[in-house]
Please model this.
Amino acid sequence: MMVPLDTPMPRSQSISMASVFERYGLMIFLVVLMTVAALASPTFLRPANLVNVLTIAAPLGMVVVGQTFVILVRGLDLSVASLMATVAVLATAFKATTNEAIPMIFIAAIALSAVVGLVNGWLVAKRNVSPFLATLAMMIILQGIRFAYTGGAPISTLPPGMGFLASGRIFGVPVNLITLAFLAIAFGIVLHRSRLGREIFMVGSNPKAAFLNGVAPDRVVILCYVICSVCAGIGGLFLLGYVGTVSNWVGQGYELDSIVAAVMGGVALTGGRGNIFAALLGVAVLVVINNLVLLLGFPIEMQLIIKGVIIIGAAAFYRTRLA
Amino acid sequence: MSAITVDLRRNRLMLSYLIVAVLLVLLAVAGGFLSDRFLTWRNIGNLFQQLIVLGMVSLGQTFVVLMGGIDLAIGSLVGALTVFLANFLEWRPDLVWLALPLALVVATAVGALNGLLTVVLRVHPLIVTLGMSSIIFGGTLMYRKEPGGSVPRAFADIAYAKVGGIPLSAIVLVVIFALAGLWLQRTRTGRSIYFVGGDREAARLNGLPVDRIVVLAYALSGLCAGIAAIFLTARTGVGDPRIGAALTLQSVTPVVVGGTILAGGRGGVLGTFLGVLLVTMLNSLLNFVNVSSYYQWVIQGLIIIIAVGIHTTRRR
Model:
């Protein structure tokens, strides 16, 4: 599952301990973490806590699905968190109090996100701006526009249905988790089973070869940025419903978290290697760690330290795997 | 052939310096028209006083970017150092002579650690320094969540001290930039930073101690963050873990505006200096004409895009 369709098989085909560890390392790590959590605190395995953890994880998961696309084409999107907050502000701009407005809100949010992704992608692919700078600039610009609109004050006019989308349940399963599953499966099929997906991997591992094979790298890259922004926009709407009020900083930190999760899931920052579902496993590991820090009664700042150690460690781990 | 390429490169850099310099003059003239207080000595003095913090972190970022890396831990490091300085000096106000060198040593060590991690683990500097930033910020918050501490009067004075009417901080900044420029241009080690940034493999094959140069660039960035933190603490009088949050990204803008290429190997400190001037002057002007800080963000983002758009050449 970790290996994209078009990558050649590794030199050695024999199943060694090392290769098993490589392939299932993250899953093993997650199981170990959950065991530690269960031993450390009886609360952890309670359904209420688990569902809670998953509810928190869902919006981040949506962002990670998109971030994976961008990283696969050697990019990086630092504007996702700022976009989430901007989409949240946009949703309140309708000043809607009834649920009829929800489809409108979603259409507007997705349209705005697509435009943002288009600009990011255009800057990176056509103007040759480094992804870091292009999305960084986008992050600041969105932040400025958002604050100029709200004047810095939080707003909370939202249709009641938004709250249900974010923290409601259908047969006990969180709605946002179901949405994430749909999103992940749909984009998973695009990425791992379609022609476009193969083109994305090709552009990510060797743009020149992709070009010579009749793939237009620019178009593929721009499309990846659009997908990323749209996913982040949808994630922003679900996170907004969960938080309830727009504080201008909805989603703060999600740019780092989404990159951490993807890198932990083995998505290579050098492009061309990665898997959506492994990246989502990275999300699971991240939220379980955050939950563990709370359950063990450590100060919440410890999450920052652990996150930092993990992202460096995970990147180092996958690099040695490649060598 | 190679002589021509070198010449073109130098011209390209000269061109970006020229563009920024012209923009600076235009801004000054525009400022003079928009407000009669903008071009007064008083305001220019204020402006120069503000330069040091952004100037120092941008200089540090320049070393790292020229070497082909990026340092996203600068802001957290500055925040942590202000907390250290303010709390240490509240505890022992008489030990300023010890606190300052200690802060610089710690800053340099943290920078060197960033470099060591990228070299030893061979992980992308973006990841290493983002991770380190998270660790430093978390650690600082565990120690102090809110701004606090205080500094003795004598220390606070260095932020506003003047030598012959010119702010001390501006003199320090210019001297350090001049030294940095000379070091990069005229010494073997300085030039090897360009070499490593231009083509790391070629540098290695030429027998340069690449790993040591990488660590050195990050250590210098840490040292610069330390100097910035000293002046920042002197000015604000408190240690604030969050004060550096915006500095990381702000440190990148003048570097890019000054024509230094993010991929490494090309650019220089003069460009960064002009970039710092431009950004500071623009913000000051926007404040003068009462443009809200929200739009200043939008403008900063546009500047990055436009600057990169001007400086980059198409690959294909």
In short: Chain A has 13 helices and two strands.
